[in-house]
Amino acid sequence: MIPAGFEYHRPGDIASAIGILQEHGDEARVIAGGHSLIPMMKLRMAEMGHLVDLQAIDELKGIEISAETVSLGAMVTQHELITHDGLAAAIPLIREAALQIADPQVRYVGTVGGNVANGDPGNDMPGLMQCLNATFELSGPDGTRSVAARDFYEAAYFTAREDEEILTRISIPVPGAGVGQAYEKQKRKIGDYATAAAAVMVGNGQASVAMTNLADTPVWSESASNALADGDVSGCVAAMLDAIDPVADNRGPVEFKKHVAAVMLRRAIERAQSRAG
Amino acid sequence: MSKMHVKLTVNGKEVEGLAEPRTLLIHFLREDLKITGPHIGCETSHCGACTVDIDGKSVKSCTTFVAQVNGADVTTVEGLTNDDGSLGVLQEMFREHHGLQCGFCTPGMITRAHRLLQENPNPTEEEIRFGMAGNLCRCTGYQNIVKAISASADMLNAQKEAAE
To answer: What values do phi and psi take at B12, rounded to 5?
Structure first.
């Protein structure tokens, strides 16, 4: 399994990386950890003349935590998310979810930026970021802009990011004290994508609920979130089942996926409520 | 596509070569450097037979371009022997506890276990199983692999204590 040839670039800053994308247009793509892109290249389902490796760009690294906000560089790996104690204290939901992504080897190199920017409905971080009401920062030839995670996903592999833009950082409001969080994921085996996964935050009269791999985008439901905020668990589950749109595949038929979705959501709600102050 | 000049450290030795950027690290190690410890198993980043250590991280070398590791420090199972060439602790414990049958997965298992024990010198059985989840074995049923890693942890800790 040998991918098609390409020219390799390793720019040292964001401006240079954008310059390479502008110069080569459709022919260029960025690579972060590469554990989604390289398998696609090996299958020749992705081919590009120019591969722009982001590993040497320091602006894309680092986890910054303030009282109100957590800022994650796009090149922060799942392993770094898991091993960062400050992050686990500020938003425990992120470590809980990251531990359920792929396997140790993949988590050492797989990045949070790649996970949210790829637009794969199977990825865990997009739904998580919608639950947390994160904002994605994009840099392009015309400067930088912010897009809410809840507005970012258009269809499978289609997002609000333009071809010449790079997703540089993720900004997440720190949930207040007393907010319980939980991530529940049903998968066929360790390392698999979710059959269904639920991210839940609840507490202080507020709630947010998002689910993964049950439509061609992550699903955050305002009516499900509002129902849970009012303490109506059945209403929350019903609203979410209404919002998802799973298709039958090798993880099961539609009826099964809806069943699993409800089970995951109820478990996540229960655990999040038990953690709420 | 033109070849690029590649320079990296493998098992403590600086190596150089010319390679197309698309060359996968596993192919560069096996075919250019003749380091055949890391194996090509599934080629789809599931099985972990190709696992090597890159700058202190366990990485699947079938899903890594050599261009990405230009300048990096790589350790393969060959680099985990003792200085005199005898089997290192993990290698010896895999032999002792029969942690392999056909042996195809073993280089990846040992290389991954090496990093696991660096990060967690006293793992529980559950932590070993979770930490080894990226490596598949189709022979052993994993029981003896877990035993071998657990015994390695004990031996490495005893060695460390004796040295202090």
So the answer is: 85, -10
